[in-house]
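Incident log entry.

Two folding requests arrived from the same account within the same minute. Monitoring flagged them as a possible duplicate submission, but the sequences differ. Recording both here for audit purposes.

Request one:
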Amino acid sequence: KPRWKFVHNGLVYITDETMRNEITSFQKAVTIDSKHLTVEMINHHIEVKRILREERHLCTGHTFIVIDQSGSMRNPDVNGFVSRSHAAYGTLALDFISEQLDSNPNKYGLFAESVSVIEMKDTAKVVLQMEPFDWILFDRLCRRPNTTRPSFHGNYNESLKCVESMIFDEYTKLAEDGVEHKDMPTFSIVFLSDGRPSDCTRADTEQRTTLLQNLTQLLSSKLLFYAMGVGANGADFGVLSSMVKIVNENGGEGQFVHAGLSAVALSSTFSDISNTLTTHRTTLLSSTKGANNLPTDNAAGKTKKDFTMRETGKIVGKTMPVETYIHGKEYTIKRFRFENKGAQRFSWRDVKFANHGAIGFEKEIHPFGKGSERLAFRFSEVMFDKKTKTAKKTGKTMVAKTSIHIEKETKED
């Protein structure tokens, strides 16, 4: 039989052929347009993927997002979205990914960040692992709720174990590369659920506590944990709240937010988390401390240096211009390590070069990262090559930071 469809104030009505009898009605779903991807965006994505794989010490942060995909996430009770699952992914893409990308002043800088997405059901499913934080990720998150189907139970511990395994693996590799704890990237966990876990026995609770304690004791202040409750006011989010408490008690930074069933509240929550991560990211480059670990003058009135950002895109195999500094040849070059010794004002200890046989270092001329107060350059130690009788790069690539402003005394750089 013929049917009529009417759309009014965001509601869709289906009637019979007379247009007098309503058959059904439902809310018109929000549509999120995909991002037009340019060649520059795709090339940047490829280069950051390479950095995350081959130069992981240049990564500034890893975010692990756990999204509840148990059966209750099919419920169509979030205004403007087909289901809770669609609302979670939609607001994640718009207010977490898109907002940070839009606010990034250095859109194609090579400070790499990764995002992993884990779907929580009876078991944990890794949907995206260590993907670059970019518009390609945004598009994938927008499409995901159309291909996944919420079902079964939601077991917290399986997802936590999955996240713990990925974090421990990354932390271990960085430590093996010589990265000290203070120079580790930030590890952020966003844990979204619409109710109490299915694994709620005493043994499950003890295991959950141990998992969070182990993570927090390893990462301490490098761990940011955000728990989001998506559900009606009567929903039980006691476990989510207790997880945040464990993180805070063990030296991490945790926060619990009940976003309810409002799309606006969901968006606001993701936006708040986005702002917090943006602040942490900016701090990596805009530190207010100078080379001697003492506060520098305010940037007001200072003149910025003239610089050109490092080339991005298809640069594999290209040789970047560098400046080379050799010990004893015009320069006296030493390596120092800062040690916190409490009341001592200066705690720099003279140590050996990181690589055996190193005689100096080379620094790329063009910065790959830019903050409000700092420029970041790639640099490496060099050794003497007997065959070519020239200085040759040795060891891993490292990061050097210097003021973005012209200083009165060069030693402040």
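Request two (distinct sequence, not a duplicate):
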Amino acid sequence: VATINQADTAWILISTALVLFMTIPGLSAFYAGIVKRKNMLSVLMQCFSLTCLMTILWYTVGYSLSFSDAGNSIIGGLDKAFMAGITKASVWETIPEALWALYQMTFAIITPALMVGSFVERMKFNSVMWYCGLWMFAVYFPACHMVWGPDGFMAAKGVMDFAGGIVVHITAGIGALVGATVLGPRKENKMIAGNLVLTVLGTGMLWVGWYGFNGGSALAAGADAAFACVATQIAAAAAASVWAIQDIKETGKASMLGIATGSIAGLATVTPCAGFVGPLGALILGVAAGVVCRFFSLVVKEKYGYDDSLDVFGVHGVGGFLGTCMLGIVASPMFGGFNTDTTMMTQTIIQCTAAFATAAYSAVASYICLMIAKAITGGSLRVPEGAEQGEGLDMWCHGEACYSLSEGEIGGGQPVPTQGV
């Protein structure tokens, strides 16, 4: 009979709060600081609103579609809709099932919020909400069930994904790339960071929160969680350092935005591997992330001209893909990893197949969701050109602004100078 372990329960309670903290305020601040000041509030509003929408969707049907055993290998049934049958006595491994549902809810919240970064400064608020809502049914719930759910298709094939390289990062990265491509580039397609302090604070919140993301995925307060946190820390630091070194080599300056982005790339890349690798494997993943994610974010994006505005595909999509494919290698005992069930080659083939299949399916499903969202929201996903180039999304979509001046003030809050007598 399954019993509740109090230490495991305490750790997952903490991890749940940490992962929610990653979206509000972590990701919200990270994204908001990079966009123009006239669009900052729109990003904060999208992340906050998605937190609310995904909470309701998860409670009503999402948890059941992801983790019910009454469905099939692709999607769960509806027997746990509205969390039916989950009582104080319900146990998932060694924690209350209600806590497991809540913990997984925070993953369902941050995944679509990640996509926001690719269509900032041009996509209508209602279009964002409709796209992300539809996308959860088409992409996230099936992916979650296939990888982590009871009798999931990918799990049965031997696919390993410790904390969401496939379920979170590949799906969101591809959904973001398709969104950016369909929307087209911003009219003023260049980075004008409104408040880098906000971005740095958001980066720190994400990094700390990732301890709950990866460490909590061990689902127990033990050695697996400890090693997952060790791997998380090392990969983030290594990727950030490698990214910064390349910035210095190319421009002669160490970029704060560059080193912050590099750390997120390392965190995304180690996610699928966190509990399966040792410190050496984490270091290898971090170095690889710092090189490959930066190449996609700077070189590939510029070459092909898509406006993945805040590098959601380049960092999360590519990072999740890279980590998923490298797992077979770095999780091998040869590199200090803990996978003794399959050979390096066998696991690598399994991982790469799953990564490519997930990316291909996510691309098609995301495009369909965008077309439906476009039809629902008046035939256009974008704000009018005048709003984009003029007042900005904050005022056009929400009628509010992050920064405002009271009467008699000029920029910086200084009083308007009066003419001397």
